[in-house]
Design goal:
Layout (H helix, E strand, L loop, with lengths): L1 H18 L6 E10 L6 E10 L2 E7 L10 E12 L1 E6 L17 H17 L2 E6 L6 H10 L7 E4 L31 H13 L4 E5 L18 H13 L3 E6 L2 H10 L3 E4 L5 H9 L3 E3 L4 H8 L7 H24 L3 E2 L15 H7 L4 H7 L2 H6 L17 E4 L15 E4 L2 E5 L6
Parallel strand pairs: 1-4, 5-6, 6-7, 8-9, 9-10, 10-11, 11-12
Antiparallel strand pairs: 1-2, 2-3, 4-13, 13-14, 14-15
Helix pairs in contact: 2-3, 4-5, 5-6, 6-7, 8-9, 10-11
Bound molecules: arginine (ARG).
Length: about 425
């Protein structure tokens, strides 16, 4: 039902867009409440004028002139806020395919799955995502298909294959030696990792991801063990930054997290086991932490059913609670934390469930919303373009029926989604 609605909305938009190429598409949205995510103010009775894919004007309904011929969208009974941003997803990963079953999935099949998960993600109100790790550049293909208007999905920043050591979390360790298989981003040594960065840039990645420690979902890796030496991490960050790309490091264990921060990464993903020094280092280096504090629930409740390795479940039982405590402490210390869910390990479209967890572990609802809007936009290099409703920004906006500052779980039930001026989901306005 939901899927059908998204598709219909998408194709109608394509038809309208296609037949009126020369003409501007102007939409005026009437917002009963509008959340200014920067100030935290809920403003009543606002108008947002959208021309083509950007916001042309926003302000009090009494002051904004409605352009002739504009399509009106009445969200006067709803709360409007910027489209949400998830800084850590895997759109080409199906959460129900795990362990040895994953060996039977081709990268092409994964990319086709991505055309489905992209729609689920967009319909959940996430109009921008950062995709951190995909084999065979399936993420690049998906991003380009979305940008070319063939696939309904969020704006994507993509990493291509994650860099990792031989046998590490970002390798594939399921097959025995005679198969002689390793994942596309595996490299050992400073020059070899620089070459991988260059390769990912060559094939059009937007960001570089590497694995600084073991992980939960990988076979044979230890959460606490550092992967890559300091020298290798320095080389990755130096090369990526020289080429103008930011760097995200997967890290659970304390040593690997600290080395990644010292190397100058822009964000640490998961950031599970933080001591005081790690928190201080993050503060001093202005490092952002992207902490997926919901996914543990799914792994522990559903992991066995969907075929996750017993080894992974055991690691999650150890790390889930520690990560949530680290989240609380890092947030209290004032570390910059951005919203990232690791959707793909859990089903796409449920990204919004993380908000309630972020509030449970110490954020105010506004802080959690800022982590998925203004702050995430800065990490992605999209400040003033995404995560904000202001003149000149992308017309990416969502609406919910209630007040998310009162109950942040409202964001689990987004009822209206516009991306780049196109309506992808509308269960709130009463428009046809
Ligand atoms: N992709 C991550 C890994 O395999 C998932 C970690 C999930 N657990 C957590 N507590 N955040 O390591």
């Amino acid at each position: 039902m939901l899927k059908a609605r998204i598709r219909i909305a998408f194709f109608i938009t394509l038809l309208v867009g296609g037949s009126a190429l020369a003409q501007d598409r102007v939409t005026v949205i009437r917002a009963g409440q509008l959340l200014d995510v920067t100030s935290g103010n809920l403003l009543s009775d606002q108008l947002i004028v959208v021309r083509n894919d950007v916001i042309e004007a926003v302000g009090d309904a009494s002051r904004i002139r409605i352009p002739n011929g504009a399509i009106e969208v009445d969200l006067s009974a709803a709360t409007v806020l910027p489209g949400l941003i998830d800084a850590h997803v895997h759109l080409t990963s199906d959460a129900t395919v795990n362990g040895y079953d994953s060996l039977a999935r081709s990268s092409i099949r994964d990319a086709i799955y991505g055309t489905y998960s992209a729609g689920q993600t967009l319909a959940a109100g996430f109009t921008t995502v950062r995709n951190l790790g995909a084999s065979q550049y399936g993420d690049v293909a998906l991003r380009d298909g979305i940008n070319d208007g063939e696939v309904a999905g969020p704006r994507m920043l993509v990493s291509g294959p994650s860099l990792g050591i031989t046998g590490g979390h970002c390798d594939s360790n399921l097959l025995p030696a005679e198969y002689d298989f390793n994942a596309g981003g595996v490299a050992d040594g400073p020059w070899a990792v620089r070459q991988k960065v260059r390769e990912n840039v060559k094939y059009a990645a937007d960001v570089i991801k590497f694995c600084a420690t073991g992980g939960v979902m990988s076979k044979g890796t230890t959460l606490g063990a550092q992967q890559f030496t300091q020298e290798e991490m320095n080389a990755i960050v130096d090369e990526a930054h020289a080429l103008g790309l930011k760097v995200a490091a997967h890290g659970h264990g304390t040593d690997g997290i600290k080395s990644a921060i010292r190397a100058g990464v822009d964000s640490v993903e998961h950031a599970s086991i933080l001591d005081e020094e790690a928190i201080q280092l993050a503060l001093e280096n202005n490092t952002t932490l992207v902490m997926d504090v919901y996914v543990s629930d799914y792994i522990l409740e559903t992991g066995a059913e969907v075929g996750m390795l017993e080894e992974s479940l055991a690691k999650e039982r150890e790390v889930g609670a520690i990560q949530r405590e680290s989240f609380r402490r890092a947030h209290e210390a004032g570390v910059n934390i951005v919203f990232g869910s690791d959707a793909g390990v859990y089903p796409h479209g449920l990204n919004g469930r993380q908000f309630a967890r972020m509030v449970e572990f110490g954020m105010t609802p506004l802080e959690a919303i800022q982590a998925a809007t203004v702050k995430a936009a800065v990490l992605l290099g999209l400040e003033n373009q995404a995560g904000i409703l202001s003149e000149g920004a992308y017309a990416d906006l969502i609406a919910v029926a209630g007040d998310p500052l009162d109950n942040v779980a409202e964001l689990e039930a987004v009822g209206f989604v516009m991306k780049g001026g196109e309506v992808f989901l509308d269960e709130l306005s009463g428009n046809d």
